[in-house]
Design a protein that fits this description.
Length: 131
């Protein structure tokens, strides 16, 4: 009888199921320092002003849409990133710059732009017109 029982159970294979493994679940929007550095490196290397809607194409293999939105919200709320009304990323804070400077102080503004939109010139014109 023992021989029959052994013969019966020797043909059974035990395969460990990986379906119910005890891996710790991670949130989908969890970002690491590497993800943040990768995001900033891609933006720095982009020629021109990247659009927010094109970021998924640029960052697709490594970052998913949820992580991209989380990083954008984090950088926007920490005032490290500026997005204009058209959805272009127009400015982001450099790591080694002074954190107390504003966008106007660190921007490279052309002299033509300054001449055209300078408030000093318009104030002088108003004084001349009123006299």
């Amino acid at each position: 009888m023992l021989h029959k029982l052994l013969k019966r159970y020797t043909n059974v294979l035990f395969i460990k199921s990986t379906k119910f493994s005890k891996r710790k679940a991670r949130p989908a929007n969890e970002i690491t320092e590497d993800d943040l550095n990768f995001f900033l490196t891609i933006i720095k290397s982009y020629n021109g002003y990247p659009k927010v809607r094109d970021l998924q194409k640029l960052l697709c293999p490594r970052l998913n849409l949820i992580k991209i939105n989380t990083i954008l919200r984090y950088l926007d709320k920490s005032k490290s990133l500026e997005i204009d009304l058209d959805g272009n990323i127009i400015w982001f804070r450099q790591e080694n710059s002074n954190h107390h400077q504003s966008l106007v102080e660190v921007a490279n503004i052309s002299p033509e732009f300054l001449d055209r939109f300078s408030t000093k010139d318009t104030d002088d014109m108003d004084v001349e017109n009123n006299s």
